[in-house]
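Researcher: Structure for this, please.
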Amino acid sequence: MIRAELLKPAILAPLAAAMIACSSFKVEGGEKPIVVDLNVNVSGEVLVKLQQEIDSAIVANPDIF
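Model: Predicted structure, token format:
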């Protein structure tokens, strides 16, 4: 008599292999392309750098104004 615990892997392994061999996957893109909008506002950083340069120029040359 064959034990049920030993019979399960013997049946399930070929069944799983057959399912994997017969399956296929198809990956398709959408109709429209993916658009990533990278509008980054860098004006704040530019303003800070300009303000630092102005401050250092005023300290270096106090008679400018």
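Researcher: Any notable elements?
Model: The chain is about 55% helix and 0% strand. The helical segments are 4-22, 43-60.
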